[in-house]
Design brief:
nine-stranded mixed beta sheet; single chain; Spore Coat Polysaccharide Biosynthesis Protein SpsA, Chain A; alpha/beta; 11 strands
Length: 245
């Protein structure tokens, strides 16, 4: 069973501020719904057996959009509510989605943050890989926007992100550094389940990078690969969104 897990629970505060009104970022469009980030992600030419969509902020609107625009996928859609979207970090949305996935006989999970524009060939390559996948993009690595990751001297991955968007600190020598594409594939179901069980509640209250890093640090290097996106935009603002069009 192949699962797509998408998190769209956030308040979209930066996006709404740039737009001048409150909105659900993944649903935003200017002419037709097919412009929306949610449509473009769920309509990628990859078939999934289950689509887990974790919402929080204005969750009713997300469910209405799923019902109205994805009726053909209805038996496969699983909207999940993150009741702590205002108090905990992105890790709790991942927890909610993974908790749902744990009830399924999944073989692999593709996890994508829901505010991204992704080029189709690269996304298909991620999904079709037989390995667990870490993605990257070619944007400059800046504290203001980037989720970065590096490989330490033992060859293990470490993630960097500043929720205040002020500064990134690498506390040790490293072999390579990348800007994250914020899409991951967990191809080892046993490792995904074990890492989920090993996480404490406190671990889940931070960013989703805690689980991601733990998972990939348990996977042998030969069982994972880095796939770069040829085109990638993190739509933090309406200007970013318009670039994606």
């Amino acid at each position: 069973m192949r699962v797509l897990l998408v998190t769209v629970a956030g308040l979209s505060s930066r996006f709404s501020h740039s737009l001048g009104k409150d909105c659900v970022k993944c649903l935003y469009h200017e002419k037709k719904f097919e412009e929306s980030l949610l449509w473009r992600l769920l309509r990628q030419p990859v078939k999934f057996d289950k689509y887990i969509i974790v919402g929080g902020y204005r969750f009713g609107e997300v469910k209405e959009a799923l019902a109205a625009h994805f009726s053909d996928l209805a038996p496969k859609l699983w909207p999940v509510y993150n009741e702590a979207y205002e108090t905990y970090g992105s890790g709790y949305s991942l927890f909610c989605g993974m908790k749902a996935a744990m009830t399924l006989p999944f073989d692999e999970i593709v996890f994508a943050e829901g505010d991204l524009f992704l080029d189709t060939p690269s996304f298909v390559k991620v999904c079709e890989s037989e390995k667990s996948v870490i993605t990257s993009n070619s944007d400059p690595i800046t504290a203001a926007k980037a989720v970065a990751y590096y490989y330490d001297l033992s060859g293990k991955v470490r993630y960097l992100y500043d929720t205040g968007h002020d500064a990134l600190t690498i506390p040790e020598p490293f072999c390579a550094i990348y800007n994250s594409g914020q899409v991951w594939k967990f191809a080892d179901a046993d490792a995904a389940r074990a890492c989920f069980s090993a996480m404490s509640e406190a671990n889940w209250r931070g960013t989703n990078l805690v689980y991601v890093e733990n998972y990939f640090r348990t996977i042998a290097p030969e069982a994972q690969e880095v796939i770069p996106f040829a085109a990638w935009i993190n739509c933090n603002t309406v200007a970013d969104f318009r670039k994606s069009l």
